[in-house]
Specification:
alpha/beta, 7-stranded mixed sheet, 6-stranded mixed barrel, 26 helices, disordered C terminus, binds ligand MGD, binds iron/sulfur cluster, binds molybdenum atom
């Protein structure tokens, strides 16, 4: 027994962004009292950002979901039941629906914020045992376009390089990413490299973000025109002799066809289309073209687009054309948003995926997985399941009857979210497995399953650079909460699959997952084990007996031996036509709505909303307008405006700033229903998707902005008051725990099913 007064230290990983910083949780008296950066972790070398430093405060909060609950009456509040009762009810209801409507009537909607082990067992249960490929995840809103772009261009998903390339690069191209706020520790490494070696930073973002503020060159591109800009850069590389003809010849296909099409993307044309200075475009091409070593970073500004796959492939093309790939200091590097989005992609938690970067499209892959899962041939369907947007749509149309949501809050985070609410209302059975009870989605659950957070469970997560870090229990889970993988396995057992899901622990799941080694994509965890991961995080590919993972994939000592993981070993120049965003502005909706993140908050605030210091940094929601637009609309700073699209509207206080382009506005995604009515930006966003990645266009939709004059209704005033009370409670700790709980419950009561 450890004495209650002794402080112990548990090595773990930060559960927020995909940088995947290593950290220690300092535990005393059964509580996490402090968080420290892990000085040896190769992602952060001891540093942590504000979110990481305060994550200890999100573990033991009044808003944790502590008990298994069912909601006998959808209009009423959920009631506490025993874990066995909830697990049995879930298993029986799912089984009944599968029996009556077939396996495609059910599905999982998963998250890049749960362990690889939990993602793996959920995927196995649906695809291998229920017999449906209806497994998708919030990565569909996040990384899907990077994944499909990588596969199309390089043959396999995941970046070819590592963070350590930063310290060898001479230039950085950051496009559609606000790295300074969203991947802060990695951006510090970029800034340190700039300071040490003079490496130049080029940023492409319609907003002047904190990232753009540090750039040598900022191209404030017209929203949704990045593909044209990327082709413009390729055009200039070709025109100015910045291409590596030897590399193109030896390792790629498709250049002649692409180069012919590039003729059109002259600086003058690109400057007009993207609304940037011609000279600035030429300067960007010069900086990148003249650097022998440079890296690209991209995230949601490129991925969340109906051209997301094309955008991602075009970034790869910049590197293939200049031969800046497969060697140190180089490469196209897509940053993962969530802490374990990479693990999910490896597990195959998108609708077409199978473990070990396999695909339901491939007969050989299906047979391989059926064999390892010991299920009969033909169990895994050849058709991909429903992707996120389609899944909720299918629920709304009655094509699907049940959904099991784990670790994500789609009622707040999905585009055109009215359709999501409709889907959940129409569904016969909604299971929500969450660690917090304040998620907007929890209000729609028939069954609530309490997940343990990462600090209370065993598991692994894989960060942006393919590095696997293990986490271990530092404190016990609250109430009846269980590790996410365990809940899934217990339901599976109850459904009659006890043998296939009777894992003794998370390690047993990891060991099974390693067996999915895929020589075709170089995905290889065989050299890893829980024991080895205890001592240090490890990067894949890592074969059996290897001491170290491979920092740069697709690299050979002799360049003539370089093989990309495509069928012929050559990378591909993918040639997609340039198109406009699905929704363009018109007279009725003359503004572009851009959405995204703030530095100190995380998504839908179930976690960072509990941290007083972070609430002080970003206390409340807002919309950013350009002063010239605000003047024309007659809106002053601090007044409220309604922002309405063809789908729905929100009402927010206005902040004025020249950081947004005239004709655009920016709304952070963090504040949703529990903070008041008409705050959720996804009431307005568009659910049009990229044809390849099926990722929705969350960054561009057309809106009308108007000054709001109306007095708040009594209900609005009451809700605002409750919201204010709640924020005060958090900010000042002026209320007792019981008072805080009463405020939270009163608030939640206002948002029971469907209100
Ligand atoms: N602080 C914080 N950090 C986070 C998160 C968080 O919630 N808070 N979430 C994590 C997750 S899951 C993710 S996915 C990442 C997201 O990380 P980022 O993608 O960096 O963050 P976003 O704010 O969504 O969007 C990035 C930028 O895209 C720009 N953009 C909008 N439209 C366009 C366009 O047409 N072209 C270009 N080039 N840019 C455009 C926006 O102005 C914005 O600055 O962050 C991760 N890190
Ligand atoms: N308009 C607009 N919408 C967006 C985006 C945008 O840029 N603009 N970005 C999109 C992107 S990139 C993303 S990633 C999504 C994020 O959207 P979500 O995934 O919906 O956001 P989170 O708030 O992170 O939700 C995570 C949920 O999991 C719960 N949770 C946390 N830890 C655990 C755990 O260990 N176990 C379990 N079971 N539950 C846990 C939290 O309480 C929370 O309810 O939003 C997307 N939506
Ligand atoms: S940079 Fe990301 S992983 Fe690192 S401490 Fe901050 S939120 Fe956590
Ligand atoms: Mo994300």
């Amino acid at each position: 027994m450890i004495a209650a007064s002794t402080e112990t230290s548990v090595r773990t990983v930060c559960p927020y962004c995909g940088v995947g910083c290593g950290m220690y949780l300092q535990v005393k008296g059964g509580r996490v009292v402090r968080v420290k950066g892990d000085p040896e972790h190769p992602a952060n070398f001891g540093r942590l950002c504000t979110k990481g430093l305060t994550v200890g405060e999100t573990i033991d909060t009044p808003n944790r979901l502590r008990y298994f609950m069912t909601r006998p009456d959808r209009a009423g509040a959920p009631v506490r039941v025993t874990p066995d009762a909830a697990i049995e009810a879930t298993a029986q209801k799912l089984q009944a629906i599968i029996r009556q409507h077939g396996p495609d009537a059910v599905g999982f909607y998963l998250s890049g914020q749960i362990s690889t082990e939990a993602q793996y067992v959920a995927n196995k249960l649906a695809k291998g045992f229920w017999g449906t490929n209806n497994v998708d995840s919030n990565s569909r809103l996040c990384m899907a376009s990077a994944a499909s772009g990588y596969k199309a261009s390089l043959g396999a998903d995941a970046p070819p390089g590592s963070y350590a390339d930063i310290e060898q690069a001479e230039a950085f191209f950051i496009i559609g990413s606000n790295m300074a706020d969203c991947h802060p520790i990695l951006f510090q490494r970029v800034l340190a490299r700039k300071k040490a070696s003079g490496a130049a930073i080029v940023v492409v973002d319609p907003r002047r973000t904190s990232t753009a503020a540090k750039a040598d060159l900022h191209l404030a591109v017209k929203p949704g025109t990045d593909l044209c800009l990327l082709y413009g850069l390729l055009h200039l590389f070709a025109r100015d002799g910045a291409i590596d003809a030897g590399f193109i010849e030896a390792h790629t296909d498709g250049w002649p066809a692409l180069v012919a099409d590039l003729m059109k993307y002259t600086p003058a044309y690109v400057s007009r289309t993207c609304e940037i200075e011609e000279a600035a475009l030429c300067e960007a091409a010069r900086i990148l073209g003249q650097s022998a070593h440079w890296m690209s970073f991209w995230t949601m500004g490129l991925n969340q687009s109906t051209q997301g796959t094309a955008n991602s492939s075009a970034v790869c093309s910049l590197h293939l054309a200049t031969g800046t790939i497969g060697r140190p200091g180089c490469g196209p590097f897509s940053l993962t948003g969530q802490p374990n989005a990479m693990g999910g992609r490896e597990v195959g938690y998108l609708a077409s995926g199978l473990p070990g970067q396999r695909s339901v499209h491939s007969a050989a892959d299906r047979v391989f997985c059926e064999h390892l899962w010991n299920v009969s041939p033909g169990t895994i369907g050849a058709q991909p399941g429903r992707a996120a947007v389609e899944m909720f749509d299918a629920l709304a149309r009655g094509k699907m009857k049940a959904i099991w949501i784990i670790g994500t809050n789609p009622v707040a985070s999905m585009p055109r979210r009215a359709r999501v609410r409709e889907g959940l209302r129409q569904a016969e059975f909604v299971v929500v497995q969450d660690a917090y009870q304040t998620s907007e989605t929890a209000a729609f659950a028939d069954v609530l399953l309490p997940g343990a957070v990462w600090a209370e469970a065993d598991g692994t997560m894989t960060n942006s650079e393919r590095r696997v870090t293990r986490f271990q229990p530092a404190v016990p889970p609250p109430g009846d909460a269980l590790a996410d993988w365990e809940i899934v396995c217990r339901v599976a057992g109850e459904m009659g699959y006890a043998e296939a899901f009777g894992y003794a622990d998370a390690e047993a799941i990891f060991d099974e997952f390693r067996g999915f080694y895929n020589p075709a994509t170089h995905w290889d965890l065989r050299g890893m084990s829980y024991e080895r991961l205890c001592n240090a995080p490890l990067q894949w590919p890592m074969g059996p007996g290897q001491m170290k993972g491979q920092a740069i994939r697709d690299r050979e000592a002799r360049s003539d031996r370089l093989r990309f993981p495509t069928s012929n070993g050559r990378a591909r120049f993918v040639n997609h036509p340039v198109a406009l965003p699905e929704e363009t502005v018109d007279r009725a909706h003359p503004f572009v709505l851009n959405t995204g993140r703030l530095a100190h908050h995380w998504h839908t605030l179930t976690k960072t909303g509990e941290v007083a210091a972070l609430n002080r940094l970003h206390p409340s929601p807002f919309v950013v307008l350009h002063p010239s637009d605000a003047q024309a609309l007659g809106i002053a700073e601090g007044e409220t405006a309604s922002i309405g699209s063809r789908r729905g509207k929100l009402v927010l206080p206005v902040q004025l700033s020249t950081s947004v382009r005239p004709g655009s506005c920016f709304v952070p995604i963090h504040w949703n229903d529990r903070f008041g009515e008409q705050l959720c930006v996804n009431e307005a966003t568009n659910d049009a998707v990229d044809p390849y990645s099926l990722q929705p266009e969350l960054k561009v939709c057309a809106v009308r902005i108007e000054k709001t004059m109306t007095e708040p209704t009594q209900e609005e005033a009451l809700l605002a008051l409750l919201g204010e009370g709640r924020r005060m409670a958090e900010a000042t700790h002026a209320f007792s725990t019981a008072q805080r709980q009463a405020i939270v419950s009163a608030f939640n009561a206002a948002f029971t099913h469907g209100s």
